[in-house]
Design brief:
Layout (H helix, E strand, L loop, with lengths): L1 E3 L1 H10 L6 E4 L3 H6 L6 E2 L5 H4 L9 E4 L4 H12 L5 E4 L2 H8 L8
Organism: Oxalicibacterium faecigallinarum
Pfam families: Rhodanese
Protein name: Rhodanese-like domain-containing protein
């Protein structure tokens, strides 16, 4: 698993062509509605085990939460279940709002 900062993830997204990462937002639905990175998919952390088959084990997946702790747990879970290209957004959506998109609402 990789740990990337918000600017590093922004660069990864901008430079990705064929191997574009899935942006997996593991926060609760109300959190996702408050703010999210464009193109991200909302699958709350507690539903990941039941929905794991919806995820591509070979595609890069960036796990996102509020501050980076829930996403770290999900990233570890995915890695333990055979996902090879897992990335945790260090600092979560909060870091993204501070370092990449300062117009994004925070909570």
């Amino acid at each position: 698993m990789q740990q990337l900062t918000a600017p590093e993830v922004a660069t990864l997204i901008a430079n990705a062509s064929a191997d574009k990462p899935m942006l997996l937002d593991v926060r609760e639905p109300w959190e996702f509605q408050t703010c999210h990175i464009e193109g991200s998919v909302s699958i709350p952390m507690n539903t990941i085990p039941a929905q794991i088959e919806q995820l591509d084990r070979n595609a890069p997946i960036v796990c996102i939460c509020h501050h980076g702790m829930r996403s770290l747990r999900v990233a570890s879970f995915l890695e333990a279940n055979g996902f090879g290209k897992v990335i945790n957004l260090t600092g979560g959506i909060h870091a993204w709002a501070q370092q990449v998109d300062t117009t994004m609402p925070t909570y």
